[in-house]
Specification:
This protein has four helices and ten strands; from the N terminus they run E-E-E-H-E-H-E-E-E-E-E-H-E-H. The two termini are 13 Å apart. The chain has 202 residues and is α+β, with helices and mostly antiparallel strands. Helix 1 links the parallel strand 3 and strand 4. The chain has a single domain, classed as Imidazole glycerol phosphate dehydratase, domain 1 (Ribosomal Protein S5, domain 2).
Length: 202
């Protein structure tokens, strides 16, 4: 069971006919990323989650990229979400809700999260081009949707302004990282209690 006295680790392995993924996460890490999915842009975005969330994330994936990037991107989000939920445990003592406003040059993103035990995501961003790197814009949004659903948290992300699609995507993922960093933080004033009037985040 997760406690405030030990590092919070989670892991998950997903094996299907479409992908094979191993992931681990330490919520009390130092921002180390070891990510390899075969998709450079996806690696870059997940690395932003580690660096700016101050999480240690190891995620290695192989998938049917000869078809397209969809299965690998979606399953990486699913696997990371399940590892995240495993690491968070029952959420005892956490802050729970947080948001972050992050700029990157001309782009500005706002992300709010609630580690409520209810997986739901809304993203609002307009892409200028069909792809960001080798990823279609809809997959840049699909990954955090899968991550939030399987991580059992509420996510609301908006890119408020921007011209360059890479900047928009990166500011959104950095904002997600900072919001999750703050929401997962242990709040000493909670004295180990669950941050819910229901008494549970399950």
């Amino acid at each position: 069971m997760t406690t405030a006295l030990t590092e919070r680790h989670g892991s998950y392995r997903r094996e299907t006919r479409e992908t094979s993924i191993d992931v681990s996460i330490n919520l009390d890490g130092s921002g180390i990323a070891d990510v390899s999915t075969g998709l450079g842009m996806l690696d870059h975005m997940i690395s932003q989650l580690a660096r700016h969330g101050i999480f240690d994330i190891s995620l290695h994936a192989t998938g049917d990229l000869y078809i397209d990037a969809h299965h690998t991107t979606e399953d990486a989000g699913i696997a990371l979400g399940r590892a995240f939920a495993d690491a968070l445990g029952d959420g005892t003592g956490i802050v729970r809700m947080a948001d972050a406003l992050v700029p990157l040059d001309e782009a500005l993103a706002h992300v709010a999260v609630d580690l409520s035990g209810r997986g739901y995501a809304v993203t609002a961003v307009t892409w200028s081009s069909e792809k960001v790197g080798e990823l279609p814009g809809d997959l840049i949004e699909h990954f955090p949707h899968s991550f939030a659903r399987e991580g059992r948290f509420n996510l609301n992300a908006r890119v408020l302004s921007g011209v360059n699609d890479h900047h928009k995507a990166e500011s959104m993922f950095k904002a997600l990282a900072r919001a999750l960093c703050n929401a997962t933080r242990i709040e000493p004033r909670r004295a180990g209690s669950t941050p819910s009037t229901k008494g549970t985040l399950a």
